[in-house]
Every structure is written in C-alpha cells, then in structure tokens.
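Job type: complex structure
Entries:
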Amino acid sequence: MAEALQRLDAHRLAGSGRSQIAWLALVAVPALAIFSGLVFVLLPAFGYFPALGGTSLSLQPWRDLIAYPGLASAARATVISAFVAMPIALGLAMLMLAWIAPSSTVRTGFPLIAARFLSWLLATPHAAFALGLAFLVAPSGWLVRIAALVLPVDTPPDLLIPRDPWGLSLAAGLVLKEMPFLFFAGLTALSQLDAPRMLSLGAGLGYQPGLAWFKLIAPRLYALIRLPVYAALAYALSAVDMALVLGPATPPTLAVLAVDLTHDPDLARRFPAAALALLHLLLTLSALGTWRVLEIVIARALRPMLADGVRAPAPAVRWSMHVGRALALASIVLGALAILSLPLWSLAAVWRFPDAVPDCCSLAAWRRALPELWLPLRDSLTIAFTVTLLALIGAVAWLQLERDLSHRMRQGGRAVAMLPLIVSDVAFLMGVQILLLGLGFGGGWLPTALSHALFAFPYVLLALADPWNRLDPRYERSALCLGASPWRVLLRVRLPLLMPALAFAAALGCAVSLSLYLPTVLMGGGRIATLATEAIALSSGGDRRIVGVYGTTQALVIWTGFFVAYWVGRRAARPALA
Amino acid sequence: MLELRDVAIRRQGETLFAPLSCQVRPGRPVTIMGPSGAGKSSLLAWLTGVLPAGLAGEGDVLLDGVSVLSLPAHRRRLGILFQDDLLFPHMSVGENLAFGLPPGPDRNTRRGRIDQALADVELPGFANRDPMTLSGGERARVALLRVLLSEPRALLLDEPFSKLDLTLRDRFRSLVFQSAPHLPVLLVSHDPQDSVAAGGDVLELRPNERHTRIR
Amino acid sequence: MMGTRNWSRRSLLAAGAAMAAMPAFAHISLAAGPQPDWAGTLAKARGQVVHFNAWGGDQRINDYIAWAAGEIEGRAGIAVRHVKLANTAEAVSRIVAEKAAGQVAGGSVDLVWINGENFAALKSQGLLFGPFVDLLPNFQKVDPVEKPTTILDFTVPTEGYESPWGMAQLVFFYDTAHVAEPPRSMAALKTWATAHPGRFTYPAPPDFLGTTFLKQALYETTSDPTRLLRPAGDDATMVTEPLWSYLDGLHPLLWRRGAAFPKSSADMRQLASDGEADIYFAFNPGDASSAIAQKLLPETMRPFVPNAGSIGNTHFVAIPFNSSAAEGAMVFADFLLSPEAQARKENADLWGDPTVLSIARLNAAERKLFDDLPRGIATPTPAELGRPLPEPHASWVTVLERAWLKRYSA
C-alpha cells in the first residue's frame, strides 16, 4: 500500500507540471474570450474599425454618444434599479436565512414550504418571470383585478407601473429574482460555518437567537457569498430581458440602449454603440467598487455592535425585523403569483379586465402556438444540452487538474471563471460580435452555444466544486492501491460517487442556458430563436395567452431538468434498490 | 446548586441511558463518564436547550430550586465550554471577550475588565490579537474567559481538555476548576484523569441499566 | 376650416396621382405571361431554406406566416423559417453590416417584410436583389393604376425590387361602450382627450405605426401638406413646427401622461383589451375584427377614419442582395401574391389585411375566393375608408423620428 502511494505521489509530481499547463489552458478560455471581447469593443469605441469605415482613432463616437437624447435618464434608471434592488434583495435573503434556516438545515413545516417556494422562484427563467410580474402589477393587472373584487374599480388607474422612468418596477422584478439566488448561495455557504455550534454557544452566552445569528453568522456568511453578490449586482446592471419587459421604454436602460444602437440600420451608430458598451463596463466596475467601499464603511460602522454585549435587539430593531419578514413573505407570494399567471393565461379562453380569474379552460392557445413553438424549443434544448456537456467536461477537467495547485492559484482560477458573470456582458459580447463581423461571420448556432457555455460554466463549476472537494479521498486511494490507473479511478470511482452532484450541476447548466437572452440576441445573427427570445418578442404582441404558452414551456423545461436531476441523484445514491 | 432529576434522552423512542439524577454543588464538580455515543453531548445539548431534531429529553433540571426547562436556551444562563475553543474568527480576542460580557456600562470600563481578565490568565495585551494567531492553549484560555465573563449560573464542560496536549491539559484543568469555585460545574468526559482532577462525584452512563456511581 | 381641409386633401390626392403617373411605370412590362424560366426557378428553389425576416409582434400574423410556410413546403419543397423581428430595422442593420464585412453570398436574411424608409435605405445602398417582381407569375394580377402604391413605396419607385404583399390604411377603432362620438380629426382628438385624459396614446417612434401617427398629425397641422410629398429639406423645422406644438399640448392628456408609450400597434391593442385605453389604431382595417374573433377585444369596438382621410400604403417583401435562397424567396413571394394566399390574408377572422390584387384581373374561380370573405363587424366599408392619403416622402420619416426622440425621450 505504501509503495503504491509512493508511486502515485511520484507520478503526480511528474505529471503536475503537465496538469498545471493543462489547467492554465482551461483558465485561459474564459480569460481570452473576455479579453478579446473587450479589445474589440475598445477599438470601435474610439473610432477604429476598418470594415465599417473607421480607420483612425477619434473621440467622435463619444461625442455622438453624449449627444444621444436620453442618455442621462437611461443611466439614471440603470443605476437606480440596481442600487435599490440589491440591498433589498440581500437584506431579505439574509432575513430569510436567519428565519427559516439559521443553521443550514431546513426543518419541516413552514421553513420547508418557504424554501420550496424560493427554489421554484429561483428556477423560473428571468424572461418568463418578468412577463408574469408585469401582468401582476400593471394597473389593469392581476393584483388590481383581485382588488376589484372588493373595491369599486371601474377603469384601471393611470399609474405608470411597470415601465416607470426611474426603473423601480425593474428593481422590484430584480429583487424577486435575486433574493432566492442569494438565499441559496447563503444556504450552501452556511454549511461551511459550523453554525449549529456557534449558535448554541451564542445562546449559552445569553444571546437571543436572531441577534446571535446576525452577530455571529451573518458577517462571516457575507464574506463567503461576496462573489454571488457581485454577480447579482452585475446582472442587475446589465439585464436586458427583464428591462425590456419591466424597465422604462423611452429611453430604456443602458444595456437595452446599447443593443438597440447595435441593431440600428445606420452603421455609423455602431461606433457610439461600442462607446456605450465601454461606458457600461466602466459603470459596472465602478458600481462594484462602490459596493466594496460601502461594505467596508458599513462593516466599520457596525463593528462596535459585535462587542457591546447587547443580548436582545432594541424594540425598533425588532419592529423592523417583523416588517422585513412581512416583506419577505409578500415577495414570495408575489413571485408565486407572477409565475402562476403564465400557465393560467395559456389556458385562458378570455381574460379581460376586470375579471379576477380567466374564463377557463381552453387548449386553443397551446394548439395555436405548438407548430411554431417546436423550432425554438428544439434550438433551446440542443444548445442547452451541448452547453451543459461542454461545461461539465470543462468543470470535471478543471477540478481534476487543480488538485495539485496551491490555494491561491485555485482562488485565482475561480475568479477568472466567474469573470463572465461580473464583467459587463453587454461590453464583451458586443466586442465578440464585432470581431465575428470583421471575420465575416454574422453569427449563428456555434457562437451562441459557445457564449452560453461561457456563462453556464461558472455555475456548473461552483455547483460541482464543493461536493468534489468533500469526497473522501480514501476511496480513490484504495482504488489506486488496487491497481487502477488514475483515468479509471476518475471514471469508475469518483464520477459515479459524485453522480447526484453531477446531475444537479447538469440541470443547473441547462437552466442557465435556457434562461439566457442577451447572448442569443447578440451572437445568434438573427437565425437563432430560443424560448427566451421568442417569449420577449411576443410580449408586445397583444396576446398574453401565447406569451403564457411560451413562458410556461420555458419554465416547465427547466423545472423538469431539476426533477430529473433529483431523481437521478436518488437512484445513483442507492443503486441496489434500482 | 444545579440539580438533575430523572433525566433521560430518547432517540426514536429508545433511551440512550438510564434516568439520571444528581446534585451539583459549587466547588465540587460532578463528572459524567461514558464511552462515545453514550449520549453525553446530547445530555449537555438538552440541558442548554439546543437538542437537535430526532432526540427528546425528559426529566427536570433545576437551578437554585427553579426549573430552567420553561426558559428558552438563551435565558438559561448555563455557560458551556466545548472541545473546540470556537472563538469567533471574525472578531479579535478582545471582541470575543466583550461578546461574553454583559452589556454596559461604557467602552472604557469594558475594555478595562477585558484587559484585567487577560492579564489574570497570563495573556496580557492580547486584546487586539486575531484568535487564529494564538496557540491551542492560549485559545482555550480565552474561551474559558469568555464563558466566565458572561456570569453564568452554572458551567457545563463538554470534554474541553481532550484536544489539548498532555502538558497543557493539566494546567488548563486546574485553571478551569480554580476559576469557578462559586459555580456548579458539570463535566462530561471519557478521560478518567478529568474526573480525578474534578474531585467530585463521578457518574457513569450506562444504557438500560441503573447508573453506577463511582466514588 | 372645413373647406381648407377638403382643399388640402384634394390637392394631396391629385399630387399623389400625378406622382404615380410618372416614369415609374416604365419598367412594368405588361407582357402576357410570366418569363419563360420560371420553371427553372422552381426547380432551383426546391430544397432551399428561406429565412423570412418579418415583424413577429402580432400572433395572428405569425399564424398566417406559419400557414403559408406549411403550404409552400408541401407545394414546392421550400422550407420557410419565420425569423421574428422586434423591428424591421434589425434586419436592415444586419444586411448593411454583412455588406460592409464583405459577405456577398450566404447572407443571414433571405426575404424581408419591408416598406418605407427601410426599403429606401436598402435600395439606395444597392443592397437588394432584383429587379425580380416581373418574374413572378402572380404579379400580373396586380394593377398599379388602380393601386399606385404597389409600385410606389413612400413615393419612392420600387423598380421591381420588392413585391407587394398587402394594402394598409390607417384606421382608428373605438369602444362604443365608452365613447359616444369618436374624434374624427386631430383637433377633435385633443378636445376629446381633455375630457377623457389618459385613455388614448400612440406607439413611440421609431415604431412604424407611431411614425405614421406623426405623419397623419403632420398632414392635418402643417400649412402646406403637399410639401411632404417632396424630400425633406432645410425647411423641415419650419414645416414640422405646428406638429410639435400640437403634441406638446396633447402629451399631458395621453395615457400615462405621455411619460411612457406602447411599443407597437399590438401593444396598443393590448391596452384597449385591458381597458386602459378607449381608442387605438392600426394599419390593418380588419385589425379589430380579427381581434374580436380571437376574443382579444370586446364586441363593442367599431372603426372610424378621420374626416381628412388617412394615410395608406402598401407593404412589401424584398430579397437582399446576398440572400442564400433567392429562388426560394421568389417562389414564396409569388405564393404570397397568389389569390388563395391573399384571400386567406384578407379573412377578418384570421388577419384581415386587404389584398394588393386587382379583382378585375382575376378569373371567376379566383374572384369567388374574395366574394365570401367574412368582413368582420369592426371593419370599415370601402366607402368609409375612402381614398387613402399618399405617404410622405421617405426622408420625412427620419426627420420626424429624430426630432421626436430629441423632444420626448427622457
């Protein structure tokens, strides 16, 4: 046994040089993609793009951009929607964690139901969710119709919801989508914190449980979910699908404006479009920097609280906790209603204001939509499967190759993998589009799938990393000592043991790809229609029943993926019972 | 005085050990012994009010004649010291101790008390140190200080010495028992040396049999 | 006041007719039948995939296109993919960019639903395939004298580079349950909106319908409407000034007080369906009827046309210069022009878009297809429609859109 281990170590040391190079090659993929994207948006932003007639650097694109009507309002709406949504989403997520899963195990009863709802919310794609929410909160929408059951409402009030110019409806949608995301990021991070013992220690020292959680767990938890928080903030600034449905229209948010400019028939507009994308990148980076500064300032301000010995929250704090809980509950209810409205619309024969429920139930909308639904569904699925396969293989290779590396290198690699989620995707995708244009490609299936993979990979990697690292290394050592080669060990021991985690990561990869909107729009060259793009395109078509069909289909496909993953995971865990 | 009356812990209907009764007086720490899995930690968990799901406790626990079972965990004022020091990593040594101190009156007084306490255990000037930079023995002392500063009414020890080196163990044991002469101390351990150092009654947990009193 | 308007309208119509009589006719060869190599085109088209880029914001139109695609697949073995656009400008942008990048074949757009300034942009930059309209057998059934806009797109001669698909005229619809007497002029609209604020709006330019509303309002407010038939010049500001003062006064009375606008005609119809607006308008005279048939609008909707007449045009399909399936596109365009497809399109239960064909040029069997078409209860009669006002020159579109964005966006 000892000899075998010695051989293994020697083999490992010899191969570690090779595996380092291979790992660096993997890391280089997202790094190069983003770098080339940014380079090719930087050059046209300063006037250089020979294929479109720009042969010398100049500041003209910036002058054109600043002269564009409504730029300031667009920027204002973008920043307000993100900076209103993020603190609320983070606060509600932390509150929910403290309330229903303080020590990372979710007990049965109310906490379990709430956690289930949150996972439904999380798994619903952004586009479909935004469409449901827009219907829910509109002055002629579901909430008002329900209120019309008791209140005398004859005509819808003339209120500017959604699509208000300050971006608050967009912020509401973002809160409802980011809160579950941060909740589950926190839940997985909690398991690393030894929360149960910390909390019982706090209780032993006399601290009321809620306060103990906020003083002992929350600060460390935040440090662990910092990357997901940054990713959420970056998404809030660059969401195009949600902004098209919930955000202001004239002018729209910066990301939507950039896409509009890039599709303008006047080719000269591509230069200010690139300048706008670069501006968006700078905005994202400064937003992240501002957030970091805020973190430091708030941490410093709240630090004395840790040591003041106060065991129970002040009445004002208790009151605001109750308000927070009510808000969290309300958002779960709103989210559930928003999701529910889609299948309800798809089955409605007629549903006009002020009916609170539609004239159920008719499959006419499904029958009408089905012939045209098939093609986007097929494209969405083929892209999703390919992307997931690529992401899984990449993640497995990444994790296998990084085993011999130092902690710092691993952290660095993770940061690079997560770059697509944090760097403004409008900026580097536009750059890649310009690059492809210069090479003569208009875009199509392959660039779309590759761009999807760039976004799905970090999620798959993060979902797989924890179970991978927690697998007892003695399984592999035993297998190696029994004479199996490292390849066999990987394929016959490690991967089968990780089947539940692999299944979940696969479902997650599919979900990410199926929800993506902007990469398909920019990389598809007009030929790729997915469920996400079709749903948004149809949303201004005046027939919510068809939109309901597309949104429901999109959501159903994703939920099915998670069910299958769960089922596969359970079967794999107990093969003897199969 | 801390008193346990017919205390038993059940897991899915089965008792882990026979009903236990004892009286713990200040100055005479009681040791409860038993092999792993006998339910020692579960007993302490139940006493402090944080018993995990799947387990149930019965019996009564009285502190100075008043039952504590009706109180939530954070009001029982039963200090606990674990095997691991569990110093909060996001706070300095001084902040850890201040966390244990009752609230008030003002920062300077609190700081003074902390500095004095640290000096008393031969850790002068450690208030601003990061707990992770301290040695195992130093961390154990800080953890002890923290629980003592919270002015508990009884002290529960969950094998707090087992992770320390042998040389440190004796010193820390004496420190613990000398620091709390006014508190009832209940020690749970599988190491006979601990019971010798404690000096009080020793009870051995046996499943399904009447508990045996040794000494 | 009334007299002035009638005079303006008559002069407008006369000027429009005069333009139609211009040499634009020259290229139309009224030869007896299709060109001899149509069979060759059919043979080449078989098996091709045509990416038909068409506005996808209206499900009824999408359903129609899906039907047409199914038919042509069965008849000619051509696979038509409907690429749903939010705005035709996207396709134009893509074609222009492909040309700039040197992609002269295998372009991503094979056939595009287009008219107006988008067509003018593509034609002037030489980005269209053709002329091909003469090669289509069914084009013989179109009479440009009867319907001049089938060869004149926003006063720009098509010269055979685009094939007409449907007739359009701006028609307004109102809910008789809430509106006693509809406003039949822009001035009356303002009066009505003052009494009923927040119950009317129009799509934001550069949506084509929104721009048309601006053009209609411009016709009714500017001092010399015939000026608009010529290209825009340095006097554009002076010409459009009355329009902007009118809109400045109208916007606070609009839905959402003019702070937000619907995105398209379908979005506007959604407002009517949701009870948020009492009046909406569309380019398709059969819009409300087919919406009622599909239970999207209440049955109390009725049409009205402004007293001054309303703008009408034709919409077309065109083939980009680098189309990868030009033959397939031509065969499909020809099918869209066939009496069977045109009749189905005009069916108010399905779409309701009027035909470009001349009934006089159809044989008896083909005429029958049109005779029994359900008209729909909310479709105006031909008398009500009257003769459409001609579209202003394509250059005015850009002027209006730019100025509107500058004044009202943000």
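Summary: Chain B touches chain A through 36 residues (CB under 8 Å). The first strand of chain B starts at residue 2 and ends at 11.
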